[in-house]
């Protein structure tokens, strides 16, 4: 609590945002739905209390990839289809926002570049009258 209270005071004094990172506790691994929640923050009490915004990055691909069955099995085909549906996607979860809504946003994730980008597909605007 002393650290998070200090960071919050420093942010107010300097009128700047401060980004603090936190590990998740292992309890997220025990759940069926691996999406992180506020209660998954390690030492979460003070972070959860003092933070104005808490965001999590979740990639279902990370978890599906680890369930890969042997090739040539019926399970493999099911896994492969699931993997195709989650590959290259990430979700930013806004778990807390003191002065705004919470929710999530889907993004594209390029693992070889560790780059996130807009998931919306590009489209071409046709000029009116053509």
Question: What is the structure about, briefly put?
Answer:
This protein is of the alpha+beta class and 130 residues long. It is built from five helices and four strands, in the order αααβααβββ.
As for the number of domains, it is 2
Mean pLDDT: 89
Quote the beta fraction.
15-25%
Number of strands: 4
Number of helices: 5
Regions with little confidence, pLDDT below 50 for 5+ residues:
none
Strand order of the largest sheet: 1-2-3-4
- End-to-end Cα distance, whole Å, is 62 Å
Shape: elongated
Order of helices and strands: HHHEHHEEE
Helix content percent band: 25-40%
Q: Which class of secondary structure composition applies to the elements?
A: alpha+beta
3D structure, described in words:
The protein has 130 residues and is of the alpha+beta class. The protein folds into two domains: 1-51, no CATH class; 52-130, no CATH class. It has five helices and four strands; from the N terminus they run αααβααβββ. It has helices at residues 2-14, 27-30, 44-50, 60-65, 74-86, and strands at 53-58, 89-97, 103-110, 115-118. It has a four-stranded antiparallel sheet with strand order 1-2-3-4, with no helix packed on it. The protein is elongated and about 60 Å long. The mean pLDDT is 89.
